[in-house]
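Researcher: Structure for this, please.
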Amino acid sequence: MHDIKAIRENPEAFDEGLKRRGLPPQAEALLDLDQRRREQLTRAQEIQAERNKLSKEIGAAKSRGEDASEIMAKVSESKTLETEAEEAAKKIDEELTRALEVIPNLPFDDVPVGEDEAANVEVRKWGTPPTFDFEPKQHFDLGEALGLMDFETAAKLAGSRFVLLSGALARLERALAQFMLDTHTGENGYTEVNPPALVNDATMYGTGQLPKFAEDLFRTEEGYWLIPTAEVPLTNIVAGHIVDEDYLPRRYTAMTWCFRSEAGSAGKDTRGMIRQHQFTKVEMVSVTHPDQSTDELERMTACAEGILQKLELPYRTVVLSTGDMGFGARKTYDIEVWLPGQDAYREISSCSNCGDFQARRMGGRFRPKEGKGTSFLHTLNGSGVAVGRAMIAVMENNQQADGSIVIPAALRPYMGGLEVIKPADGGQ
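Model: Predicted structure, token format:
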């Protein structure tokens, strides 16, 4: 959510930020609503002040034995007029809020300007894509040949964009999630959380999923929303709180199922596990002092990259352009893992600094050590990483000519010492 006071103080900077996002100027329309709201509030205050004055006149008139009925009628009328002004201000304020809540965050100055992913800028690469003396297969061909990845049965149980994993592949997914959690908690300073996977409207609103992206979500008949990412409950841990500066930074991690309707993705990645309605993800969330968030983004991104390095998976890191960035982000790094079966890098993690954008929506503040008052927190989120896509990358980068999969050394302790997944290992 944007600060109307900041827009009022520098409308040109606000519109320039929107321009970099590829959006038209909106400051004038917002400030018109703000001016109308403030005029109604001023009117209500003036009416109240006048009524206070009239009330004193009533007392004075009665003390002199005079008829005060005319003054009393004016007081009664003023109450009605004040209520009308307050209700008008409230209505305009709601309209202003509806306008502000669908406007995306403004990019930092160092974010590359562009319309889409074509303007993203690669900042580094790690590892060398493997070479094969055979035609590498995609994960779904490998998984189905192993008899451990079943899309047909999943479709019978639920529909398209679901998968049923079994045996060694089911264990591999679990192993990856546990490995990521152990790394983030044991080495990277994150606190593990097991949050609800169903949340209410306020929680979805706090991180910016509502109202703009309702069609991308699943909602129960009871009004709960299935989380699209653990970012939603983890970030909202501080919703409505004022924390002491010493409390910061807070770093949370969680492994959850995530649910997305994939609205608008028809025809994209229809085969396999790249884009599913239900998937497993390990998420990282940081809540920081405003002065810390820039460095925290670099730290968080390094934590996600470290997972891929331990798994010996080649990847590249790109900074997203203004046109490719998410709604709530001011700056985002995408980490793209190499998939031999697609002969391409594909996103496996996205780490974003949201500034105070989410904190304003959910009312998250901190009390500084020095000075008075409170300030809004900064929030960051990142995949640490997408478990299903990590499994895809492990399968495709470590495939052998016979269709077996070599398990990275870092995962073998989590796989009971298993080193290679073969068709015969389906019962593992």
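Researcher: Any notable elements?
Model: The longest helix spans residues 27-63. Residues 4-100 form a domain with the Helix Hairpins fold (CATH 1.10.287.40).
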